[in-house]
Amino acid sequence: KTTNNTRPASQLSIDYYSKSCPQIEQLIGWIISQQFKEAPVSAPATIRLFFHDCFVEGCDGSILISTKPGSNVLAEKDAEDNKDLRMEAFETIKKAKSLVESKCPGIVSCADILAIAARDFVHLAGGPYYQVKKGRWDGKVSMASRVPSNLPHANSTVDQLINLFSSKGLALDDLVALSGAHTIGFAHCKHFLNRLYDYRSTKKPDPTIDPRFLKALRMSCPHYGGNADIVAPFDVTTPFLFDHAYFANLGANLGLLASDQALFLDPRTKPLVQALGKDKQRFFQAFSVAMDKMGSMGVKTGSSLGEKRNDCGVHA
Ligand code: HEM
Ligand SMILES: [Ca+2]
Ligand SMILES: [Ca+2]
């Protein structure tokens, strides 16, 4: 094997399982298309699960670990910021793992299954198909306490987003492209309620929300006493289709979270938001590149750094 000194060689490769489990992508693909038919919300849920995995301890399946019964150390999935990850996403990975284990026992990591599942859902929802590099091992650490500082929040400023993403090796372009995942899926009212009623303690709504959109959101999400389970779509135009409408919406003041709308309001990110809003192919290209980058973050390779789990929810 040769190493390339000018560029850090990716530890991952597209054909990692070509000898040990050649049918891996078909096996997972079959589960994902079935799951997409039965429960379409699994698509946004799993794409988000992958993001939350990669940002905490790298893409290593640490998000999939369940807290040990009786333990007072909570696993990542029980952190406050992960409470609204949908169970459909965990179910999807569980089903895929179980089929993969039946054909290739002890070979494929949960982290790789999650990366492939996220890609398959992007594609099934109408988004790009890109190759997924494989070879991730599962992580040995999953601690709720590591979560808050490593994930962005609905009210994060563009400065905070840029800093967080760049601390992970992701550039401004990646931040904007990856945010385009909000072209599908939903958010609970609590994440944008302050924008509707009391923006920055002004007792007034966020002046940057389109007035009709504001009215509609207020109907779904009352200031007080609303049902905590109510959600609103990120993309009011095509909430189930993975397209570039999210970016055009931001230009029309139809961003759902403050952090979404902020990408249009900040001069550093606005030009790219506008470009992607006009050019679906460019979004798809940028998204594919950024998912590959995100998917390579903090990966563990080899048994000294990682593990191969039998059950994705339990350390090996
Ligand atoms: C840029 C900073 C980001 C912030 C502040 C953010 C924040 C959020 C919040 C608050 C929700 C709503 C959760 C809920 O109420 O259930 C959400 C959902 C979602 N996020 Fe993000 N997110 C960001 C980036 C990303 C990235 C990079 C991806 C993937 C590449 C992503 C994918 C998703 C998806 C698909 C959903 C919908 C989940 C569902 O419907 O189940 N987000 N995000
Ligand atoms: Ca992780
Ligand atoms: Ca859409």
Automatic annotation (TrEMBL):
<feature type="disulfide bond">
    <location>
        <begin position="110"/>
        <end position="312"/>
    </location>
</feature>
<feature type="disulfide bond">
    <location>
        <begin position="54"/>
        <end position="59"/>
    </location>
</feature>
<keyword id="KW-0408">Iron</keyword>
<comment type="similarity">
    <text>Belongs to the peroxidase family. Ascorbate peroxidase subfamily.</text>
</comment>
<dbReference type="InterPro" id="IPR000823">
    <property type="entry name" value="Peroxidase_pln"/>
</dbReference>
<dbReference type="InterPro" id="IPR002016">
    <property type="entry name" value="Haem_peroxidase"/>
</dbReference>
<dbReference type="GO" id="GO:0005576">
    <property type="term" value="C:extracellular region"/>
</dbReference>
<keyword id="KW-0560">Oxidoreductase</keyword>
<feature type="active site" description="Proton acceptor">
    <location>
        <position position="52"/>
    </location>
</feature>
<feature type="binding site">
    <location>
        <position position="243"/>
    </location>
    <ligand>
        <name>Ca(2+) 2</name>
    </ligand>
</feature>
<feature type="disulfide bond">
    <location>
        <begin position="189"/>
        <end position="221"/>
    </location>
</feature>
<keyword id="KW-0732">Signal</keyword>
<feature type="binding site">
    <location>
        <position position="56"/>
    </location>
    <ligand>
        <name>Ca(2+) 1</name>
    </ligand>
</feature>
<dbReference type="GO" id="GO:0140825">
    <property type="term" value="F:lactoperoxidase activity"/>
</dbReference>
<dbReference type="GO" id="GO:0006979">
    <property type="term" value="P:response to oxidative stress"/>
</dbReference>
<feature type="site" description="Transition state stabilizer">
    <location>
        <position position="48"/>
    </location>
</feature>
<feature type="disulfide bond">
    <location>
        <begin position="21"/>
        <end position="104"/>
    </location>
</feature>
<dbReference type="GO" id="GO:0042744">
    <property type="term" value="P:hydrogen peroxide catabolic process"/>
</dbReference>
<dbReference type="InterPro" id="IPR019793">
    <property type="entry name" value="Peroxidases_heam-ligand_BS"/>
</dbReference>
<keyword id="KW-0964">Secreted</keyword>
<dbReference type="InterPro" id="IPR019794">
    <property type="entry name" value="Peroxidases_AS"/>
</dbReference>
<feature type="binding site">
    <location>
        <position position="60"/>
    </location>
    <ligand>
        <name>Ca(2+) 1</name>
    </ligand>
</feature>
<dbReference type="GO" id="GO:0020037">
    <property type="term" value="F:heme binding"/>
</dbReference>
<keyword id="KW-0106">Calcium</keyword>
<feature type="domain" description="Plant heme peroxidase family profile">
    <location>
        <begin position="11"/>
        <end position="316"/>
    </location>
</feature>
<keyword id="KW-1015">Disulfide bond</keyword>
<dbReference type="InterPro" id="IPR033905">
    <property type="entry name" value="Secretory_peroxidase"/>
</dbReference>
<comment type="similarity">
    <text>Belongs to the peroxidase family. Classical plant (class III) peroxidase subfamily.</text>
</comment>
<feature type="binding site">
    <location>
        <position position="62"/>
    </location>
    <ligand>
        <name>Ca(2+) 1</name>
    </ligand>
</feature>
<feature type="binding site">
    <location>
        <position position="152"/>
    </location>
    <ligand>
        <name>substrate</name>
    </ligand>
</feature>
<feature type="binding site">
    <location>
        <position position="183"/>
    </location>
    <ligand>
        <name>Ca(2+) 2</name>
    </ligand>
</feature>
<keyword id="KW-0349">Heme</keyword>
<dbReference type="GO" id="GO:0046872">
    <property type="term" value="F:metal ion binding"/>
</dbReference>
<feature type="binding site">
    <location>
        <position position="235"/>
    </location>
    <ligand>
        <name>Ca(2+) 2</name>
    </ligand>
</feature>
<keyword id="KW-0575">Peroxidase</keyword>
<protein>
    <recommendedName>
        <fullName>Peroxidase</fullName>
        <ecNumber>1.11.1.7</ecNumber>
    </recommendedName>
</protein>
<dbReference type="InterPro" id="IPR010255">
    <property type="entry name" value="Haem_peroxidase_sf"/>
</dbReference>
<comment type="function">
    <text>Removal of H(2)O(2), oxidation of toxic reductants, biosynthesis and degradation of lignin, suberization, auxin catabolism, response to environmental stresses such as wounding, pathogen attack and oxidative stress. These functions might be dependent on each isozyme/isoform in each plant tissue.</text>
</comment>
<feature type="binding site">
    <location>
        <position position="238"/>
    </location>
    <ligand>
        <name>Ca(2+) 2</name>
    </ligand>
</feature>
<feature type="binding site">
    <location>
        <position position="53"/>
    </location>
    <ligand>
        <name>Ca(2+) 1</name>
    </ligand>
</feature>
<keyword id="KW-0479">Metal-binding</keyword>
<dbReference type="Pfam" id="PF00141">
    <property type="entry name" value="peroxidase"/>
</dbReference>
